C-alpha cells in the first residue's frame, strides 16, 4: 500500500515515522515544499509543556495525546539517539505575581515526573514580586536537531521524500491509498479551513551556556536553554501573518527576560526567528472522504496544534495512524 504524508514539520515527520512503525508493509512518502529550518517547527523552543488551551475533540482524547507524546519523548530520551535527536530532560520554574492558576497545568501535573508548588525560598530565585510558582521536570526537543535526525531515520526505513508545492489535495488522487494531511497553517488554504488561525511568535536565541534551568513568568516571558543556545521569548500575536522580526518585540523580549534573569544582559544573539503557530480549536485529527471526479480521496487530517506541535506531535501521530488503518478498511473502490 502507498501512503502519503503532506508536510515535513515535526507533526509530519512524527506521523511518517509512526506509519513506518505500525504499517511495516506500507510505502510511505513525505511531500512538502518546506523542510527543516524553513518550517515553523524550527522556531520552537521545544519544551514539553502543552498549554491548558490545547484541545482535542474531547478531554479524554486530549489527555491521551499528551500522555502518549510524553511517553514517546521520554523513551527516546533514554536511548543512545537522544543527543543526536536533540532530546533531553530539563527542569524549570514558572512564576506569577498575578494569579495562582497561571502556574498550574491540569494536563501535565500528573504526567511529568515532577510538578509541585514552589517554596517561599524558590520564589526568591529570580528578581520580582513573585507570589505563586511551580517547579517541574520535563523533556526538551530541539527541532533543529530532531528534524534532520527524524528525516534520516525515515529515509533509512525506506521512506521517500518529494519536494512539491500542492494547490489541491485532489492532485494526489489515484497515486496513494491514503493521504495524511500534516500541513499546519497550509491547511487554511488547502482545506479552506476558517477555524485555522496564525498566532505569530518571535524568539531570540542567545549564547548563554551558564543557564541550565528553564524559567517562565507573566506576559509570555520564557527562558529555555537548549542544545544550541538559550531561547528567549516571547509573544503571541493572534491572526498576524507577519513573518519579519520586529525590533519592538525584540526589545520587549530582552527587557522582560533580563529582568527575570539579569545574567542574560550582554548575552550575544545567535539568531532571531519568527514563526506562525497554526492554531485551531479543536486540533483536527479526523478522517475525511473527499469527493473527486473519480471517486473519493481518503484523507486523515493531523493539523492545528498551535504552539504545541513539538510537544504533542507523537501523540496525535499515534491517533492519526489508527485512523489511517480505519481508512484502509473502507471500500477500496471509493
From TrEMBL:
A cellular component term, taken from the record's GO annotations: cytoplasm
Mind listing the GO molecular function terms for this protein? D-amino-acid oxidase activity; FAD binding
Provide the residue positions that the database annotates as binding D-dopa.
222, 277, 307
Q: PROSITE patterns in the record, alphabetically?
A: DAO
Name the positions where FAD binds.
33-34, 45-47, 183, 306-311
Required cofactors, per record?
FAD
Which GO BP terms, alphabetically? D-amino acid catabolic process
Under InterPro entries, the record lists:
D-amino_acid_oxidase_CS (IPR006181), DAO (IPR023209), FAD-dep_OxRdtase (IPR006076)
Keywords, comma-separated and alphabetical:
FAD, Flavoprotein, Oxidoreductase
Which Pfam families does this one have? DAO
Question: What SUPFAM superfamilies would the database entry show?
Answer: FAD-linked reductases, C-terminal domain, Nucleotide-binding domain
Q: Which residues form the FAD dependent oxidoreductase domain?
A: 3-322
Q: Spell out the PANTHER family in the cross-references.
A: D-AMINO ACID OXIDASE (PTHR11530), RE49860P (PTHR11530:SF17)
Family classification: Belongs to the DAMOX/DASOX family.
Q: What is this protein called?
A: FAD dependent oxidoreductase domain-containing protein
Amino acid at each position: 500500500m502507498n501512503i502519503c504524508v503532506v508536510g515535513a514539520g515535526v507533526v509530519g515527520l512524527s506521523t511518517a515515522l509512526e506509519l513506518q512503525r505500525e504499517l511495516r508493509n506500507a510505502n510511505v512518502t513525505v511531500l512538502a515544499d518546506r523542510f527543516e529550518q524553513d518550517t515553523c517547527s524550527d522556531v520552537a523552543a521545544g519544551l514539553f509543556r502543552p498549554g491548558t488551551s490545547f484541545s482535542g475533540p474531547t478531554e479524554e482524547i486530549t489527555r491521551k495525546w499528551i500522555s502518549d507524546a510524553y511517553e514517546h519523548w521520554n523513551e527516546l530520551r533514554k536511548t543512545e539517539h537522544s543527543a543526536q535527536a536533540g532530546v533531553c530532560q530539563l527542569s524549570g520554574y514558572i512564576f506569577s505575581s498575578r494569579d495562582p492558576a497561571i502556574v498550574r497545568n491540569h494536563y501535565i501535573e500528573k504526567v511529568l515526573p515532577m510538578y509541585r508548588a514552589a517554596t517561599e525560598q524558590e520564589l526568591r530565585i529570580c528578581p520580582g514580586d513573585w507570589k505563586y510558582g511551580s517547579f517541574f521536570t520535563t523533556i526538551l526537543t530541539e527541532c533543529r536537531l530532531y528534524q534532520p535526525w527524524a528525516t534520516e531515520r525515515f529515509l533509512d526505513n525506506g521512506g521517500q521524500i518529494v519536494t512539491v508545492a500542492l494547490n489541491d489535495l485532489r492532485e494526489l488522487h489515484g497515486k496513494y491509498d491514503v493521504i495524511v494531511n500534516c500541513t499546519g497553517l497550509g491547511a487554511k488554504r488547502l482545506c479552506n479551513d476558517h477555524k485555522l488561525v496564525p498566532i505569530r511568535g518571535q524568539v531570540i536565541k542567545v549564547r548563554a551556556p551558564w543557564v541550565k534551568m528553564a524559567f517562565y513568568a507573566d506576559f509570555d516571558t520564557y527562558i529555555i536553554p537548549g542544545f544550541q543556545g538559550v531561547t528567549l521569548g516571547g509573544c503571541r500575536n493572534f491572526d498576524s501573518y507577519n513573518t519579519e522580526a520586529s525590533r519592538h518585540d525584540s526589545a520587549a523580549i530582552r527587557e522582560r527576560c533580563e529582568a527575570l534573569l539579569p545574567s542574560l544582559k550582554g548575552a550575544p544573539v545567535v539568531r532571531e526567528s519568527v514563526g506562525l503557530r497554526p492554531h485551531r480549536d479543536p486540533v483536527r485529527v479526523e478522517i475525511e472522504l473527499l469527493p473527486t471526479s473519480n471517486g473519493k480521496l481518503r484523507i486523515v487530517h493531523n493539523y492545528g496544534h498551535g504552539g504545541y506541535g513539538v510537544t504533542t506531535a507523537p501523540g496525535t501521530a499515534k491517533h492519526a495512524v489508527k485512523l489511517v488503518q480505519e481508512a484502509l478498511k473502507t471500500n477500496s473502490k471509493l
